[in-house]
Amino acid sequence: MKKNNFLLIVFVLFVTSINSQTFDFNVNLISDELKTDANSVIRFENYHIDMTSQREMTIKLKTAITILNKKAKNHANITLAHDKRRIVKSVKAYYYNAYGKEIKKVKKKDFKDYSASDGFSLYNDGRYLHYSYTPTTYPFTVYYEYEIKTSNTAFISGWILNGSYNQSIEKSKFEFTYPEDIKLLKSEKNFEGYTVQKTEKTGLIAYEVENVKAIESEVHSPNLGSFLPIVRLGVNKFNLEGIDGEANNWKEFGKWYYNNLIQSTLDLPQVTKDEIKKLTKGIDNPKEKAKIVYKYVQDKVRYISVQVGIGGFKPMQASAVDKLSYGDCKALTNYTATLLNAVGVEAYHALIYGGSRGKKSIDANVVSQQGNHMVLYVPIEDENLWLECTSQNTPFADGGDFTDDRDALVITPDGGVIKHTRVYDDTENLQKINASYTLNNDGSIVADVKMVSSGTQFDNHLGFESLSDKKLDKQYKEFWDNINNMNITKMNAVNNKKEGKFEESVSFTADNYGAINGDRILFPINAFNVVSYVPKRMRNRKLPIEITRGFYDVDAVEVTLPSDYKIEAIPDTVSVDTKYGTYKLTIEKISENKLKYTREFLLKAGKYPKEEYGDYRNFRKKVAKYDKSKIVLIKQ
């Protein structure tokens, strides 16, 4: 055997030996404590960010995750964002069975490359490398590692003790290194009561944890970032798409953003200025002017992902939007701002985290590039108006649950300032039903319903207006799933943007709504708004209760009874008043064969201690019970 070949074999055996010692993913090695309440377990995670200069940064990750069951199968997939300034230098993955035996190897060429355009993201000119794995058995383990180089040092990933419910951690380390001439900016929250090993010295900050037990997801669980240790990082000197920046506070950051990314895009053709001034001529009230401008924008432009300038951060020219009649969130916000400025109304761009499921705020304690969306802030006297400029259907200054109740960064020529967006009162999130139905002596009903929704409940119905008749018919049958055998005879869905109301009218018939038993008919008095949801029973609640948004439902329904029947049994008036909400059901006898019932259900947004879960559940249980109240008729 040649010497070189011998050395090669020895080297391969040596590397294989090291790998086998380092990566032992046998599931039996996971402690029972870390398997409790866990759908997945992070075996180890080493995340390292190395900022070598203001214009260069390397991100490296090595991690292994054991997926115990199908509830955590999404953790087996790998997604990496990239663009011309964020280069994926390397990526590879390995999949192992329950005993730690390798079953699949994935190379970079096996990843699919997709456009990252999503309709709202500020970072919408990028792409994604994605690999999706379909497991055949559980449990299994995925190990992957990657290296990314980027010049966008304005974005530095933060750290949280655990980013997922029902996931435990054997060992995890986050490390950020940076040059000595750069100042680290950081925000640390919720560290009290948790064991986190922190290392900090000039040019380095690191956080390390071991043996973190899984946190079980519970009904109305709060966001993990609201109670777990969380760190957000920034630097005072950064680069964003080739532009150097320096900022030690939000005022400085906002001024830099305005001067470098916004100021040069505020051009508008004179003919358009003249047109918008003509439309607002004779109107002195700035809010009325803003309404006219907003309608003008909604009628003229549409949302579309655009890749112009420095992509995800700088708006395209207002003149380009005016000519093309389309743009992304930045472009349409910018265009609306220039139109408002043309008619003497103040308006400022605002970076924000958009999303309906939660309310994520810009972290006011650390200066860094944050947000995934842009809206327009319009201060008018004592009002702070927020305009969603990407939607042609949203009412004026009524962005709904996508941008409500969170901190945003408002960017002005004088600098940045943190402002809080609109908070909807629970009663503003209103759904109002005025209806009637006739119960026939064969148990069938004929119904006419008028429904008006506003506030965040407006969003629940907004998509209805664009549905085909077939899909709208299906939607209403799903909406009233408590009524079987429904035949819709008339339906109309109208977006009344001017008044901020979504207006619907539906007529239908349904067989067997009332159950006939000999000489009696039994039927539920509440036909159109039955809330059957009851949170599951929990004997040992561990987390606080968070009701993100409240709402208010008001129903007034007239019921005509068959003339050959009389009332044998009727529910009493119900009134429930708790700190979590109120409920009231009243049935009024108008005549011998006519009733009117009114129903009010108010659910209050709020945060409550875990000890009150039983009380909250009892309230919802009562609502579900009374919503199914029945009337008994007997044949005369």
Overall geometry: globular
Average pLDDT, all residues: 92
Can you identify the CATH class of the largest domain?
Mainly Beta
By CATH, the architecture of the largest domain is named Sandwich
**Major beta sheet summary:** 8 strands, mixed
Share of residues in helices:
10-25%
Report the structural category: alpha+beta
Low-confidence stretches: 1-21, 118-124, 306-310
Compute the separation of the termini in Å: 108 Å
Strand content: 35-45%
Number of helices: 10
Radius of gyration: 30 Å
Q: How many structural domains in the coordinates?
A: 3
Number of strands: 37
The strand order across the widest sheet is: 5-4-8-2-1-10-13-12
- What fold name goes in the CATH topology slot of the largest domain? Immunoglobulin-like
Structural commentary:
Mean pLDDT is 92; it is low at 1-21, 118-124 and 306-310. The longest helix has 20 residues, at 3-22. Helices cover 18% and strands 39% of the residues. It folds into three domains: 22-236, Sandwich (Immunoglobulin-like); 247-420, C8orf32 fold; 428-635, Jelly Rolls, CATH 2.60.120. It starts with a helix and ends with a strand. An eight-stranded mixed beta sheet has the order 5-4-8-2-1-10-13-12, with no helix packed on it. Strands 26-27-25-24-31-35-34-33 form an eight-stranded mixed beta sheet. A five-stranded antiparallel beta sheet has the order 21-20-19-22-23. The chain is α+β, with helices and mostly antiparallel strands and 636 residues long. A hairpin with a 5-residue loop joins strand 4 (86-96) and strand 5 (102-106). Helix 5 (286-300) packs across helix 7 and helix 6 (318-324) crosses helix 7.
